[in-house]
Structure formats: structure tokens, C-alpha cells
């Protein structure tokens, strides 16, 4: 596994109802198409994407360097939230995203930090580029009072990997 030290949060800059009738995987496949066909990249730039209902989908494998923040891809994990179109860099999280996305993002961050203790920093794309993305201040969001319940301790890795684990944590059932 490559050394990891930071998580960088992004948004897809899509409208809240974009492809509302499509699955999270179909949306990720479309973003992958944008990155591969339109930009000529080898794969989708993000490692994880979180849909409006809180569904987490893996993008580029964690073992591979992402393509999500110019000059900051080495040692980082890119997580993108569906939404954010028209948002400003200092919006509140819930101005552009859902409570389900917030819960899923906090759980995913906690899981990644547990799995990779070398991750000591969490930032937003707008801290590294002159962009609104992810349309909120990640430092302010991290310091905010809104907290999710602590994730239960998992003694052994459940089948299905991190996505199945997050689904169990969010919904208490099997995927």
C-alpha cells in the first residue's frame, strides 16, 4: 500500500437532482467517463464518491495515486460528494449536501483513519486551489458541533470490504 497522510474532500459540482433516477454506481460510472474519455485520465480521479442517500462507492483503488488535486495527489485520498453545483466555498455543509452524505462522510473518514493511522490531515479542495469545491469549509465542518454516533468496533474485516462495512454501519443490515 502506498503511504497515506491526508484526505481531501471534493464535490462533483452536480445539481441535487442530477440523475436522481440512477443508482450511485451509475453516477460514478458517468464521472469515470468524464475523467477517462473527456480528460484522458487512466481512471476516475476520486477514490470514493458519496451519493445523496449516503451510499459510498469506490472509485480509483486506494493503492493507486488519485487525480483529484493538482500537486497534492501523492499520499492523499480523494473523496467526492455528489452535489455542490452553484455553492460557495464558505457555505454550510447542509446548504449543498444531505445529512445522509454527512453521516457517510464522517464514518468513511473515521474508518480510513482507523485503517491508516498515518492519515493526520483532512482538507477541502478549496484549500489547495482557487475553487469553491467542496462548497464548504472543511476545517470549520470538522470543528462543528454536528457529530455522528461513534462507529462500532469491528473485530474482523467483514466480507465485502469497506463499502459493505459502511453500509452496515449506516443501515445495520447486509448489503
User: Can you identify the CATH class?
Assistant: Alpha Beta
Strand portion:
5-15%
Low-confidence stretches: 145-159
Count of separate DSSP helical elements: 5
Element string (H = helix, E = strand): EHEEEHHEHH
For the secondary structure, the number of strands is 5
Global outline: globular
Specify Rg, calculated over alpha carbons: 15 Å
**How many domains?**
1
* Strand adjacency order, main sheet: 3-2-4-1-5
CATH architecture: 3-Layer(aba) Sandwich
CATH topology: Lysozyme-like
Helices, strands, pairings?
Layout: E1 6-11, H1 24-38, E2 48-50, E3 56-58, E4 76-81, H2 93-96, H3 99-115, E5 121-124, H4 138-143, H5 161-171
Parallel strand pairs: 1-4, 1-5, 2-4
Antiparallel strand pairs: 2-3
Helix pairs in contact: 3-5
Question: How is this structure best described in words?
Answer:
The structure is a single chain. The chain has 175 residues and is α/β, with parallel strands linked by helices. It has one domain (6-171): 3-Layer(aba) Sandwich (Lysozyme-like), CATH 3.40.80. The protein contains five helices and five strands. It has helices at residues 24-38, 93-96, 99-115, 138-143, 161-171, and strands at 6-11, 48-50, 56-58, 76-81, 121-124. A five-stranded mixed beta sheet has the order 3-2-4-1-5, sandwiched between helices. Helix 3 (99-115) packs across helix 5. Mean pLDDT is 88; it is low at 145-159.
